[in-house]
Amino acid sequence: MNTLTPGSTIGMLGGGQLGRMMAMAAAELGFKTHVFCPDLDNPTEQVANAATHADYEDHAALEAFANSVDVVTYEFENIPVSTVEFLKKTTNVFPSSKVLEVSQDRLSEKTFINKLGIETAPFKGVSTLEEAATALEGIGYPAVLKTRRFGYDGKGQAIVKSEAGLADAWQKLNSKEIIIEGFINFDLEISVVAARSQSGEIKCFAPVENIHKNHILDLSIAPARIDQSIKELAIANASKIVEKLDYVGVLTVEYFVSQHDPVLRVNEIAPRVHNSGHWTIEACPTSQFEQHIRAICGLPLGCVDFIGEARMTNLIGDDIDQYGALLAEKGASVHHYGKSETRAGRKMGHVTRLYPNGY
Ligand code: AMP
C-alpha cells in the first residue's frame, strides 16, 4: 500500500476535462495536482497547482515531473506504454501499463475479455483485403471494420453491409491493422464505472444507459432501464475485469444489450474515468473522479449509492451557448470545461439533472 496524505501531489498525464474534474476532486480531498500535457491551453491546468508542457516522450521532462509528484495517473488511454514504464522507475503509476497494453489494441482487448469468459462481438484481426474477405465468410454481414488502435467516437470505423462494400471500407480505413467485428443488433448501450483500490476492494457504480448522437455520447440515464439480472451481470463482469488486471483506479466497461439475445457483450473498456460517469458528481456520495483519486492514493473507496436518479447531457460545440439558460434552470448542475475555442463536435461541458424522487 502506498497511502498518500493530504498535501501530497498527484501527477496527471493529459490535460482534458477528465483531468480537470479529477484535479477538482483531488483538491476537495486535500491533494495538489501537477499536470503534464503538451498543450499550453488545456482545461486541467486551469484548476491544477503546477504544469509541465512537454511531449509524452520527452524523458528529461518526464523525469523532472516524476521527481516532483507523489503518484502519477492519466486521464486518457493513448499515453505511450513506454512513458508509463519510464515514470515507473521513479514513482508509482496507477493504473499500471498492463491495462494500456491490453486496451490500446482492440484485438488484444477483445481477446483478453473472451479469455475471462466474457462475451464480445465475434471478431477477427486481419491485415490484408484478402484476409478480410475470408474472415467475413465466417463472421457474416453486416460487419464493422475498425482500426485496431487510436479509434474513438466512431472514428476509424466503417460498416460493411455486403461483400460489394468491402473494398471501399478497406480503402477508407487505410490501415494494415484492422479488426472485423460482427454487427451487434443491440437495443441499448450501457456502461459500468468500476473502481478497485490498492487493497483490492472493488466498487461499481450502477450501470448507466448511454445514448449517442453522431457517434458522440449525448445523454446518460442513471440507472439504466434494464432488468436486474443484466445489471448484476454487467457489474460482475466489470468486477472480474478489474480484478484480473490487478487494476488500481477507475475503469469503465461499455456493453451492448439486446432484448432478443440474452448475451451481454462488452464493446470496449476504457482505463479511466469516463464521460458516462459524470452523473456521479451529483447523484452519488462519491463521484467517479473522487473514487479514482481515493484508489490511486491508497485510500478506501467511497459510497456508490444513489442520492437520486440522474440524467447527464453533454454540451457539444454550440450547445454551450445554452450556458446562461441552463444556469437559470432550477435543479440543473452546469459544468463548463473552460475551453477557449468552441468547435463542432468538441465536448465543451455537460449538465446533470437530478431526480431524488425518480424521473
Ligand atoms: P467504439 O468506438 O468501438 O466504441 O464504437 C462506437 C460506436 O459504434 C458504439 O458506441 C456503437 O454504437 C457502434 N458500434 C461499434 N461496434 C459495433 C458492433 N460490433 N456492432 C454494432 N455497433 C457497433
Detail the poorly predicted runs: none
Helix percentage:
25-40%
The tally of strands reads: 18
- How many separate domains make up the residues? 3
* Tally of individual helices: 11
Strand content: 25-35%
What is the oligomeric state here? Answer: single chain
Average of pLDDT: 96
Give the C-alpha Rg. Answer: 20 Å
How would you sum up this structure in a few lines?
This protein is of the alpha+beta class and 359 residues long. The chain contains 11 helices and 18 strands.
Q: What can you tell me about this protein's structure?
A:
By secondary structure, this protein is α+β, with helices and mostly antiparallel strands. Helices cover 28% and strands 29% of the residues. It is built from 11 helices and 18 strands. It has helices at residues 17-28, 59-67, 81-88, 97-103, 106-115, 129-139, 166-173, 228-244, 280-283, 288-296, 323-327, and strands at residues 9-13, 32-36, 50-52, 71-74, 119-120, 123-126, 143-147, 157-160, 178-182, 188-196, 202-204, 208-213, 216-222, 249-258, 261-270, 309-316, 332-336, 347-355. It binds adenosine monophosphate. Residues 121, 144, 151, 154, 181, 183-184, 189, 212, 215, 267-268 line the site of adenosine monophosphate.
Record keyword descriptors for this entry.
359 residues, Rossmann fold, D-amino Acid Aminotransferase, Chain A, domain 1, 3 domains, 4-stranded parallel sheet, 11 helices, binds adenosine monophosphate
